[in-house]
Each structure stands twice: as C-alpha cells, then as structure tokens.
Amino acid sequence: MSAVDRVDVAGPERTGAGRAQPAAPAPVADLTRGMIEIRHVADRGDAQAAYDGLYAGHGIDNPVRHLEHLLDLIDARPGQRLLDVACGEAGLVRVARARGLTAQGVDLSPVALAAGRRGGLPTGVLAVADGQALPFPDRCFDRVTNIGSLEHYADPLAGVAEMARVLAPGGRAAILVPNTFGLRWSVLHAWRHGDVHDDGQPIQRYATRGQWQRLLEAGGLIVERVVGSENQDDLPASGRDIGVLLRHPSRLLIPLARWVPVDMASMLIFVCGRR
C-alpha cells in the first residue's frame, strides 16, 4: 500500500473559552444511510462460523509493507501499547511487536487466532473477542488499529465507540475502510460487471469519505486526516506476469496512485484521535 493523497480535516469549532464543542450526534439511522451493504448472515453467531470457515481455507492476508505504512501513519513507537481490533491471523501484531510496541490483538474467529499463535506470539497476546464489546478497561491503549474490518461489523457504530473508549487521551487510531467510489476497485468493477463487488465476507459495506467520517466522529473519535491507498502488491513482480495486467488492466493505475484524489482511492485510512 502507498499513500495516494491526503485530506487535512478541520477540527471542531471552538468557543470563546477555547474549548472544543462536539457537534450533536446524528441519529444512528442517518449514519449508514447511503452506504452500500451486502449481507450474507443474520447475526453474530453466523458471522463467527463464516469467518472460522474462511480462515480454515485461504484466510485473509495483509502484506507487511502495507502494515508498516499504517504504523508509520499513527507514529507508532517502541514502548507504546497497541491494540489491533479484528486482527485476523495477527500480522499487524507481529509487525508492531517487532518495532518494540507492546501489541495485542483480538478477533471474532478462534481459527484465525490459532493460526496467529503459530507465528510464535507469547501467551496472552491474542484473545477471542467481539470488536463491538472489547474486554479492556477505558483509555488503556496508546494506539488502536482496525484494518479492513469495520465495514464487516453488524453494528459499526458500536465498534467505533469501543475503539474510542479504549484509546488513551493523546492516542491515535488508524482505521482502513473501502471507498464506495474507489476508481480502481468499485467504479471499474461496476463498469465491467454492472454490479457491486462482493468479497464474500459475511457482511460488506462501502461508503464515501464523508459517510465514514460521520460514523467515526459519532462514535467518539476525531478524524485528523484521511489518506487514500492502493495495493502496490497487486502490481506484477516481473515481466513474466504481463498476463496479469492483460486480465486486470486497472492495475496499470497503481503507479499513478499519488495523483488520484483521495475521494477516488480504493481504500481510505482515517487517522483519528479521541474526542
């Protein structure tokens, strides 16, 4: 992954006393209005079973280069406590611990965490938990990450509220979500197939930058900036992979990613503080 563009987001309005005055929260129904939702399951139990099956098969992989970039965006430093929510097979947890952070991870799927533990992580680093009800006290993590997972929650607002709750004052969170109007993924997929891309996960949502920002801020976070991203690992590794480009010509746009406006990036990374 590499940065495409950045949007500096203005903070809340300040009164004469110099204190931030949070905006009145929008009704919950308004926060997901206009989002695209694909749902294959009815409840949390069905979702856990579906993810166990997914991780027992091909799993979900995050390239290390992408994870390093995300940690750089939130200025992750040795000695800080980090929580990766919906950590899957704990790739980001391992990268963060290699950088000297005290990193932990939680995920809904025991199968995913069992695979993560095979990477040599100490006992107690990973725990089975729902991101909508984290088993940690308030304000106990300096850094919180949620990478390509919030869009799959049954109640994304509850998930945001939990991340805000466990984030310490002065802490930073990185939340990566898909963009409804991402040029390379969503728009070109709809152009070629006449339909929304379905990645097969139990619940999938796509939203615009504004929709995601309203959700994050309603849940107790303050968005400081937004970074658009594309997957550099989709590029062919050598000339022998030219057939990949012929089958997926949209990958030719990846080297041009830095000139793509953030609102047309495939993925949006929100760098947030605690309200």
Task: Give a short overview.
The protein is of the alpha/beta class and 275 residues long.
Question: How is this structure best described in words?
Answer:
With 275 residues, the chain is of the alpha/beta class. It has one domain (2-12, 22-274): Rossmann fold, CATH 3.40.50.150. It is 29% helix and 24% strand. The strands form two sheets. Strands 1-9-10-7-6-3-4-5 form an eight-stranded mixed beta sheet, sandwiched between helices. Strands 2-8 form a two-stranded antiparallel ribbon. Helix 2 packs parallel to helix 5 and helix 3 packs across helix 4. The longest helix is centred in the N-terminal third of the chain and has 13 residues, at 44-56. The protein is globular, with a radius of gyration of 18 Å. 39% of the residues are buried. The model is unreliable at 1-23, 232-242 and 244-248 (pLDDT under 50).
Regions with little confidence, pLDDT below 50 for 5+ residues: 1-23, 232-242, 244-248
Structural class: alpha/beta
Structural Rg: 18 Å
Mean pLDDT: 81
Count of DSSP strands: 10
What fraction of the residues are assigned to beta strands by DSSP?
Answer: 15-25%
